[in-house]
């Protein structure tokens, strides 16, 4: 019985096993995995799958160990990033019989296919034609013909040729079905009418682009009253004039890359705004929690390149959600969809609403109290007044506008002021007399509910207390918003985005929520004032720098919430493109560029004429090249001449700036005199800015001329020198002696520009040949070389030209996560080289293209006339047969062999192969000398031909700015433009355009790499000259966004080359990898680096920071170097320091290669400026260094550890630092005129000094002259700047033509001088302070300085004198008693006459105030203290300001605590004495009575 049971059981088990095997073999589910497929494409495939026996999964490259659990693997190799080990895993699975199909392989090594050719071709055709029917058949084909399962499956249909329809729309009656296609606008309009979607006179919106799932967007747009036209190809739609009958109000491009210049031209002509919402390309919850938001190639294609098309509003709209099967699907994020559609509708409202009804809010930035309005390079109030006047003329309701800018300025100071938190008395008076908008708690909370998430508002309350907070409040609990309202236009000050507390050290992990006053101002603009548009006026405010996500913002980001759905425009200087990008991307602003101040010559040559004549005498005594040694008599004459040069150099103080000795008995060496000569010549040729620019007012004619000289003269001169050097005609002395360069090249170039300014028509090929000394044939060759260099070649050309025509596989199924068509990182090919697989891919892409289109593409791609003729013959010959054959062609699954198919394709598309041969052919190679020759000739030609254009552009720009701003307020399109000052980049002109940046993934550019190498070598050479031929062990670099954009990443190049690492470019010109330069090739030790990044650079180029840290690791691990590896030594030292600080060896080892740092919590600055300027808050520089190390201690060198703060990491990285380097790319600022230079470079310098105990060298990378980049020592740069600007009567007189903003610039320079004195005392001499005192206090140049400040901006003079007195008080400037007394007298006089300003220096430094009062007479001091008190102290009966203490109260807290016990003891002792006296007196009285 038991045996029988066992037999039965065994039989059942065998049957079950057989059944299980049969089930698995014929009936079980077919499991299909997709690797590296875009979510949108995979979602379409998933939607097409109606078979429950086919299971679709997305497989990550991190999970390749699960490959064999699937029945079929599809791999999209476009942009596939895999290691050799991962590639081997895939190949092993394929060799083991797993069906694998790889498509779009840009790297041949990734082309792994284990199917036979028929199966592979069939599946490729399904994929490339796309659509649900094809995807459904593809999956069925896999189940039937690859997995060999016939159960529960339909026979796959033949491939349905990809639809060529122009428009598409979801079927309203059956939303899950295939989209409906339409070939004409008329047919589409009938569809709209038949389905209740036609709305007479409704706005028409085009939706296009591959990067979103648009059904939700289309539905919402239609629901809100629009007619939507979804377009497959914008280029074709415009070219075929389909768009003419639509006449869209807006275009929404779900972008991944550019639309192109053709479409930009069309948008500009038709004045149609272009929106580019973002797909965050990941799960929504992951994106919301990500600190970066977006980076790398995906950011470049989704944000950076669409900006070149003039796109606005990079608003995160689409995200991924998981479906029930665990697959990610792309959808519009519901709450963001509401805001985005409202935004688009608001822009369209601007087109349709009359100007008289539009309500516009304009935010300006100003200093506290009576300080002036400020904006980069702009005279603000007159500019603002001009805009208001223009708006009034355009029909805007601007009621009550005063009759002059001066009256407007007075109104702003009265009703639109901002105050430091210490100015409680000023707050009180403002609330009584300033007429603020008063907001109730109910209003505020209702607005908060509409805009701000509850957890965000909880942070506001935690940081600032309950509404209304501590400031701008009334006794009945309302909150004041400062504003001036002129009818439908309101002006508002940009309030401080911080709470105004006095903690300089940032606490890591906290996101400082803005105060109630800040939030209330923007929410009132949205909901109280009900603005139709928002303008930020001038560079720049604070909204875009509020904390959190860096780009692709979410609803937890303050700027996203405070702008809301308002159309936003930002009037921004062309000279600050780096920060402009943050305004675009973090506050959704459409930029409206404005001019810099004009440029002019320094006019100081006469001041140094005696010195230059003495140098000339010395040079004339030098032996000529090859001449015999000087005789004794000549040597003595030479020494006398040298001593004369030295005497004059010391008299002028130049020796201090150049680091030369002042011993008048020892002559200078020839090298020293050469430096003096070149320094004096630099002073004479230095380009300085004139009076601040007033929007709407052209430069004075003389300043237009001087600006054109600045733009055109040097490019001509340096190019002619380059040509002479190439032809061995240049005298070697020219580059050594700048005076010779001026005489032989600069002055003739200036004369030529003068002639062309008078008559631009003089430019001709004959003139160009004559000026450059070349023949007409040589000019033609230069053109040929230039065209060859600029013509897209190879793969890049094909991808650019065929992007619109690419079928579904090449276009829709590209990997968007790493950038469309991104090449594999492991590819080490040169730019423009093309793999055989890509050639095949291009042939597939080209199939079916008509001859006209192919010829047009070939022309666009630079084909020669001979090649075009061959192509034309071949194409038209085969076109008729080919097209007829193609119409009948379907996929034959069983009978057609791959070989036959290829032959048929070849027959059909022979003409296309002719095009392929032309475009894939290797371009002609030119020598370096030939390229340099062409570059120099083209620079001369371009400059000569543009002299007249420069003049016209400068003249026309002011009017264009106002016109463009008005057009933007009408909902129009603003044309795109690059940024930078017009000397560095003349293409920024004309202004009134929307700035764009560069693609960070392509940096450092090839030219930037060469310049970076040269500057790195110059750095080493300069350090060697100053330090007895030793090289720096470690160099610290500051990275800024403006320099990065304008130079193509030259500082990145410097950093990499210092490490001995070079960039590797992929097939598309992007830098995706690095190569360790062999030690013998490098020829020197690898030098260690540290990088501090500004927040702006971090946000636009995170991937470059990752490259730098990878380069550090590569350099540290370099083997067999011929020289000492300073990087490896630096890593060892950092590890040792970290272990000493108490870290574990494992932690220390990990952190020892950390080299890229920036602001904690995503901050944009160092946070030390306010501390430096609060001199009563610190006594030693160590305190500032400690705050710097804390605030800049976040690591940004890898995505994994992004924004990580590890204690002591920055301190360890700074060990062994010998030099710090700061970029300078703009002619509009210098080390003294821009505060961020002392903040970043000075902060790093101070931190290094405190970490190492040694003051490092400090150099500027000077990129201002693209033809003559150089390194310059900081003190020398300060000398050049101070001598040509703040101490130069020409400069001062020019600035004094301006108003309050110009006066503020003087004060800013003095403040920055103080900042440098704190950060690097060696950079600021006592003599510089003495000279500043003599010019601005004693008025030794007789310029009427005091009268100017009193008339235009007394607050600026208060600031200047306060800063100078603080410098004296802290011992930074060893001022004489007479100087201090005179300064105190002037300061108290201005304060008492015009009331306190009231900046921090003037009103918020108790020690300084006491110091000033102590130097004044009693009556003046009393009045001075009273005036300050009126500003600082609230009335006794005033409002309760909360528990926030004034700064000096905090400052005095510790002292009070220290003195408490002794004070109590003294008090008790006094009481005891009094009681004893009382008892004694009583006792005496009693005794006397007795």
Task: Using brief descriptors, characterize the structure shown.
alpha/beta, eight-stranded mixed beta sheet, six-stranded mixed beta sheet, 60 helices
How would you concisely characterize the structure shown here?
By secondary structure, the chain is of the alpha/beta class.
Secondary-structure map:
Blueprint: H1 2-27, E1 30-35, H2 39-48, E2 54-59, E3 72-76, H3 84-95, E4 100-103, H4 117-129, H5 132-146, E5 167-169, E6 180-182, H6 185-194, E7 204-208, H7 215-223, E8 227-230, H8 234-239, E9 250-253, H9 261-270, E10 274-275, E11 278-283, H10 284-289, H11 296-308, E12 316-322, E13 328-332, H12 334-352, E14 360-364, H13 380-393, H14 405-415, H15 424-433, E15 437-439, H16 441-451, H17 454-464, E16 479-481, E17 484-486, E18 489-493, H18 516-528, E19 533-537, H19 558-563, E20 568-573, H20 577-587, E21 590-594, E22 599-601, H21 609-621, H22 632-652, H23 654-658, H24 670-685, E23 687-689, H25 701-726, H26 733-736, H27 738-758, H28 765-772, H29 776-790, H30 794-802, H31 808-811, H32 836-846, H33 851-860, H34 865-888, H35 898-908, H36 910-920, H37 928-969, E24 976-977, E25 994-995, H38 1006-1026, E26 1034-1039, H39 1041-1047, H40 1050-1059, E27 1061-1065, E28 1071-1076, H41 1079-1082, E29 1088-1093, H42 1095-1100, H43 1102-1116, H44 1126-1140, H45 1145-1151, E30 1156-1158, H46 1169-1173, H47 1181-1191, E31 1194-1195, E32 1204-1205, H48 1209-1214, ...
